[in-house]
């Protein structure tokens, strides 16, 4: 489920591309000048050998030539560019576009390898069987030998990586840029390129590059990526580059063919080398081919069911090699699977073998053709990774970084590398179009529509309005400028925060708000000192800071708003009255420490004054009335989420995926009289969260929580379940429970959602075309209220509000069951929820329909 900040991030990313596309389609031409004679070369994509006597032909100029015996050729390239087609017997033909800015006309040819069709070809009148099948036995031998050739099992192992991700418009017609001289969008012609895999013309819109060293240790088992350089240019200049890099890197992850399951496009695919492979795939020994001077056996595979999350493809294994060395992998995603926005996705990997018999990946090439909505322009995305400098004796400066926390270490100057660094460290040169990306947004910003569109998209994505360039103060968040609730009526709010352009260590943020119905002003002021230097705002990971805040605002009892703010305008519509509120005056002093291994500690000194409201009175069992009470405590919160990745917002973080387990432990303690506290507070809570994948059968998201109050407290400090009164699906909340319905001083809860990925609907004719996906959710809460915290047994305690309907659980759990449809029009999730217990209580919602925006592949 995407929360609002992540939804905005994804929507604005797509809006940015669509706006750019609309402008591109309206372009006209640019002038023609003299041509340039440029040297070219053709190489084998696997071995890197120069290929002689390759036919080179230009469909534009109708001219042709042939490479010499050394694989070299020369061609005249006009100023507007030219497409060259290289072809030869035994290789797949390639078309690629060049311009005079290219210093070398470099073409890679791949040995021909025909993909399996999605309808598998069988021997006539012979039924496929996995038993006594030499192809299955061959696959099992490959899988059994995987550890024997894995260099990560050596004491130390390292390699260098160069990664390039290019995205743009696919199958773009350059004639759309033709017309009169000096056309408005003539600069776009510099960004026209040719896709290596398909030969289609593409218009590059963004390019991301990374240079890194990877290092592994077998005892103890550790790994680290040391990022030495990172660069991003193109239309994603509009958005936070780090967030885009994180999201794209997660979607287009590196594929490990030897892994039992392959995470790609935030889905899990069954690997052809999985233990489940014989039950998921059909295997065939289809050919023996020559690559270089060696003979390789071709193992072809395809899913038994074309709707299964698997691949069609081929493995090339060295003939007669007992280590079952894989030289090359080519595979693609079947078109019939339940996958959004993806028209095609192809993967190619090449390996070499060293003198120790270990395998090393030298190339990983992934290409995808995407389309958000049928009938709209198609997009192109390519992730190309080149590997070299394999070593079992990395230098001390590299090996020492294994001891640093976290899986990744980014050196300080990584984002500020100059052109010389990139020229020296690219393992494959940029094409002329890729090298021209620096000027893309400069050209776009000359047009008022794009200029102002960029600003609007940026505001929506950030949630804040910048006040200058550079901005020292940002107004926001914009989604809470106006909202509505039962207590305040129309609520207006204005706030903002200072940025690192004012001070990279000292920060302030806050807001003022006013409700026209209750007539009360509210406010929050916060100051922070960051021990680490920030790039823009104070919440950037990792946080190491001292923070102080003071707030006066509504406190909605029984509603915790874990993933959004209570005055979010999108939550203004409620299924029931929302007036169980107090006016809370809160002061906090926090010490926050976040480590790069995703462990964090927060120590808080909290002082809280709860003031009565028109709807919540404070009266004890003796009939005494109080206008307010005070509670104070010291709280320590520990959180550990190993491997967690997220996009960073100004206030919150949105997980890129839910694969990482999350462990949280908190404890609060405040003796009576401490800073004026009216009672002793001693409370503990724990939670564990994990996504559990079921290979091709979807996955579960499971959350287990528990808590207990060890002392006697006033009822606002009890462990009230988190209630959702809106019509939207909100995580970690109860959709049909009323606020303050169940009073607990101890509880245990279970929250499980099963995402089937279309397990049933994928197999229904006609219905499968809709790509609907089934969901099942179940929530259970076990709780209780001890006599010491029950006002019926202790008249010194504050009584529950008479209109709240508070009750004690009877020993049986509260339960909700939801059955729903996900992926409606690829963006909606609808769920019908039933309340399974405590249904006979007056005024109870027994069932209801809930809806949420949900984007996923």
Structure at a glance:
Helix content is 10%, strand content 42%. It has 857 residues and is mainly β. The strands form 7 sheets. The chain has an 18-stranded antiparallel beta sheet that branches. Strands 8, 9, 10, 11, 14, 15, 16, 17, 18, 19, 20 and 21 form a 12-stranded mixed beta sheet that branches. A 4-stranded antiparallel beta sheet has the order 3-2-5-6, with no helix packed on it.
Q: What is the topology?
A:
Layout: H1 4-24, E1 36-44, E2 55-57, E3 64-66, E4 72-77, E5 82-88, E6 91-98, E7 105-109, H2 134-144, E8 156-169, E9 192-194, E10 201-218, E11 221-234, H3 241-251, E12 261-264, E13 267-270, H4 277-280, E14 281-291, E15 294-303, E16 312-318, E17 326-332, E18 342-353, E19 359-370, E20 379-391, H5 396-399, E21 408-410, H6 419-425, H7 432-435, H8 440-444, H9 448-462, E22 465-466, E23 473-475, E24 482-485, E25 489-498, E26 506-515, E27 521-530, E28 544-556, E29 581-594, E30 599-611, E31 618-619, E32 625-626, E33 628-640, E34 646-648, E35 653-655, E36 662-670, E37 681-693, E38 699-709, E39 746-755, E40 773-784, E41 814-824, E42 828-835, E43 847-853
Parallel strand pairs: 1-7, 11-21
Antiparallel strand pairs: 1-4, 2-3, 2-5, 5-6, 8-10, 8-20, 9-10, 10-11, 12-13, 14-15, 15-16, 16-17, 17-18, 18-19, 19-20, 22-23, 23-25, 24-25, 25-26, 26-27, 27-28, 28-29, 29-30, 30-33, 31-32, 33-36, 34-35, 36-37, 37-38, 38-39, 39-40, 40-41, 41-42, 42-43
């Amino acid at each position: 489920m995407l929360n609002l900040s992540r939804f905005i991030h994804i929507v604005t990313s797509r809006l940015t591309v669509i706006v750019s596309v609309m402008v591109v389609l309206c372009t006209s031409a640019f002038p023609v000048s003299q041509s340039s004679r440029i040297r070219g070369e053709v190489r084998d994509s696997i071995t890197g050998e120069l290929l002689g006597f390759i036919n080179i032909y230009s469909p534009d100029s109708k001219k042709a030539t042939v490479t010499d015996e050394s694989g070299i050729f020369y061609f005249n390239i006009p100023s507007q560019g030219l497409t060259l087609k290289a072809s030869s017997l035994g290789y797949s033909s390639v078309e690629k576009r060049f311009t005079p800015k290219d210093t070398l006309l470099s073409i890679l040819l791949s040995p021909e390898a025909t993909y399996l069709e999605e309808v598998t070809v069988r021997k006539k009148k012979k039924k496929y069987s996995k038993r006594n099948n030499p192809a299955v036995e061959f696959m099992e031998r490959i899988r059994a030998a995987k550890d024997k050739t894995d260099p990560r099992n050596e004491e130390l192992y390292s390699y260098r990586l160069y990664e390039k991700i290019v995205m743009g418009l696919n199958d773009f017609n350059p004639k759309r840029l033709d017309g009169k001289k000096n056309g408005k969008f003539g600069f776009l012609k510099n960004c026209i390129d040719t896709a290596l895999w398909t030969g289609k013309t593409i218009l590059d819109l963004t390019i991301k590059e990374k240079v890194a060293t990877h290092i592994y240790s077998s005892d103890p088992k550790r790994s680290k990526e040391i990022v030495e350089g990172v660069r991003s240019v193109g239309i994603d200049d509009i958005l936070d580059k780090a967030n885009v890099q994180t999201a794209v890197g997660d979607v287009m992850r590196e594929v490990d063919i030897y892994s039992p399951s392959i995470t790609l496009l935030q889905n899990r695919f069954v690997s052809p080398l999985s233990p489940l492979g014989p039950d998921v795939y059909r295997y065939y020994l289809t050919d023996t081919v020559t690559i270089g001077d060696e003979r390789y056996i071709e193992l072809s595979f395809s899913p038994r069911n074309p709707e299964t999350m698997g691949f069609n493809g081929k493995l090339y294994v060295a003939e007669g090699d007992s280590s079952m060395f894989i030289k090359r992998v080519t595979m693609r995603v079947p078109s019939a699977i339940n996958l959004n926005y993806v028209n095609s996705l192809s993967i190619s990997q090449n390996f070499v073998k060293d003198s120790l018999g270990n395998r090393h990946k030298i190339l990983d090439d992934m290409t995808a053709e995407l389309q958000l909505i049928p009938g709209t322009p198609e997009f192109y995305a390519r992730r190309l990774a080149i590997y070299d400098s394999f070593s079992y004796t990395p230098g001390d400066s590299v090996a020492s970084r294994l001891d640093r926390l976290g899986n990744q270490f980014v050196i300080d100057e990584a984002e500020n590398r100059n052109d010389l660094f990139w020229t020296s460290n690219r393992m494959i040169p940029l094409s002329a179009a890729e090298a021209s990306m620096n000027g893309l947004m400069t050209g776009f910003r000359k047009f008022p529509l794009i200029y102002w569109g960029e600003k609007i998209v940026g505001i929506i994505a950030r949630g804040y309005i910048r006040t200058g360039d550079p901005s020292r103060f940002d107004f926001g968040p914009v989604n809470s400028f106006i909202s509505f609730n039962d207590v305040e009526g129309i609520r207006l709010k204005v706030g903002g925060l200072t940025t690192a352009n004012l001070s990279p260590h000292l920060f302030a943020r806050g807001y003022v708000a006013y409700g026209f119905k209750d007539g009360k002003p509210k406010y929050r002021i916060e100051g922070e000192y960051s021990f680490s230097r920030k790039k823009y705002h104070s919440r950037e990971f990792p946080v190491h800071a001292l923070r102080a805040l003071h707030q006066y605002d509504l406190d909605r009892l029984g509603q915790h708003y874990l993933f959004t703010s209570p005055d979010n305008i999108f939550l203004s519509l409620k299924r029931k009255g929302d007036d169980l509120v107090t006016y809370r005056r809160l002061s906090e002093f926090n010490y926050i420490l976040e480590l790069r291994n995703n462990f964090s500690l927060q120590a808080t000194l909290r002082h809280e004054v709860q003031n009565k409201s028109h709807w919540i009175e404070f009266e004890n069992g003796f009939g005494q009335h109080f206008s307010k009470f005070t509670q104070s405590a010291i709280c320590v919160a520990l959180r550990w989420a190993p491997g967690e990745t997220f996009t960073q917002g100004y206030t919150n973080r949105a997980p890129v995926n839910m694969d990482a387990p999350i462990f949280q432990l908190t404890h609060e303690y405040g003796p009576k009289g401490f800073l004026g506290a009216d009672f002793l507070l001693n409370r503990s809570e724990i939670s564990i969260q994990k996504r559990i994948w079921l290979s091709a059968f979807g996955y579960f998201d499971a959350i287990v929580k528990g808590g207990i109050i060890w002392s006697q407290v006033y009822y606002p400090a009890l462990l009230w379940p988190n209630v959702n009164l809106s019509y939207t699906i909100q995580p970690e909340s109860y959709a049909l429970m009323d606020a303050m319905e169940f009073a607990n001083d101890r509880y245990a809860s279970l929250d499980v959602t099963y995402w089937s990925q279309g397990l049933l609907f994928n197999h229904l004719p006609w219905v499968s075309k809709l790509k609907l996906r089934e969901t099942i959710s179940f929530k259970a809460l076990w709780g209780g209220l001890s006599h010491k915290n029950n006002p019926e047994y202790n008249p010194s305690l504050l009584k529950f509000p008479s209109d709240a309907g508070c009750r004690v659980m009877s020993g049986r759990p509260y339960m909700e069951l939801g059955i729903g449809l996900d992926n409606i029009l690829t963006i909606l999730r609808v769920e019908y929820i039933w309340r399974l217990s405590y249904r006979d209580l007056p005024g109870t919602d027994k069932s209801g329909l809930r809806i949420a925006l949900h984007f996923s592949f």
